[in-house]
Amino acid sequence: MGVRNISLSARSLRHKLNVIFSLVSVIPLLICGYLISYYFLVMGRDVGQMSIIIVIGLIVILTGWRLGKEIIEAVIKMSEHAEAISKGHLQEIEINRGDELGELGESLNRMASQIKQNIHELQSHLEKIEELTITDELTNLYNQRYMKGRLAEEIERAITFQHPCSLILLRIENLEQYRERDLLPDVALLLKRNADNVDKVGRWDERKFMLILPEKSKKRAVEIAEKIKREIADLREGLKVSIGVSSNPLDGNSAEGVLNKAEIALEEAGREGGVSVKVA
Question: What is the pLDDT of residue 9?
Fold first, then answer.
């Protein structure tokens, strides 16, 4: 049964408790009435004694009401706090009691704190899961799924703000001559070093990599591609790569168009033996 089902509304709870304490307070009133009628009317005692009895009765009644009000407010506060927790509001309440109600309040605070911790841990796990779903395990670069979505977003943004967005595709032509687990992480680090904070670097397939370059012209993308080609030549002896470059809006106004032009340029570079950069 949920907290919502077992909790009473504040108005209903306050009303019921007020009725209970009102009925309970009738008892000292009846006792006072009986004593007054007995001692004053039957035994003929003086007014001073009656006053003392009345004062004592009033003190008893007021003390009962004070204690009752304190308990009512504490119970209602706990009820409202429990309902707030059920709705996702996990703020702790201040407890200044040493009785069972105080223990109940502390329990609610501990429960709210534990829920907060569980939510934080869950969010952390979800972030790790999300990271695993968008990154390549071997290179720690973004995977094709992420890069495809990001390319579409960046091209759309480039069109909206009329800014350039360039694309680099790189393919390792003789990957079979090297150990993938040794070579590909090194290539990934090299590509990251040539990208700035807004660029995105990903592994497109087994031997192909992609760089999305927002705010960069085709000319600037070619400069980056040439630099990457020179550094890769120094990375491993005999390593061959082909690179294709395209750009929005010159080569298309959609992610598919820009990607297709980069693929065409990449194939042209590949026909030259994997040692060149070709531009769409």
Answer: 46
Six-digit token string for 9: 């509304």
Q: For the purposes of burial, counting CB atoms within 10 Å of the CB of 152, is it exposed (0-12), middle (13-18) or buried (19 or more)?
A: middle
Nearest to 9 by CA among 71, 75, 57: 75
User: Helix, strand, coil: what percent of the chain each, to 5?
Assistant: 65, 10, 25
Which pTM value belongs to this model?
Answer: 0.58
Structural contact between residues 90 and 82, judged by C-beta atoms closer than 8 angstroms:
no
Say if CB 109 and CB 93 are below 8 A apart.
yes
Question: How many C-beta atoms surround the C-beta of residue 226 within 10 A?
Answer: 14
Is 209:201 a contact under the CB 8 Å cutoff? yes
One-letter amino acid for residue 205 of the chain: D
Q: pLDDT by residue (tens digit) across 9-32? A: 445 555 666 666 666 666 666 666
DSSP letters, 182-200, are HHHHHHHHHHHHT--TT-E
Take residue 71 and report the two structure tokens written for it.
């308990």
Q: Residue 34 and residue 20: Cα distance in Å, rounded? A: 22
Nearest to 72 by CA among 7, 11, 24, 6: 11
Three-class DSSP category at 3: helix
pLDDT of residue 3: 41
Q: Which amino acid makes up residue 113?
A: S
Sheet containing 208-214: give its strands across: 200-203, 208-214, 165-172, 241-248, 277-279
Looking at residue 70, its amino acid is E
Bridge partners (DSSP) of residue 214 are: 165
Rounded distance between C-alpha atoms, residue 170 and residue 86, angstroms = 53
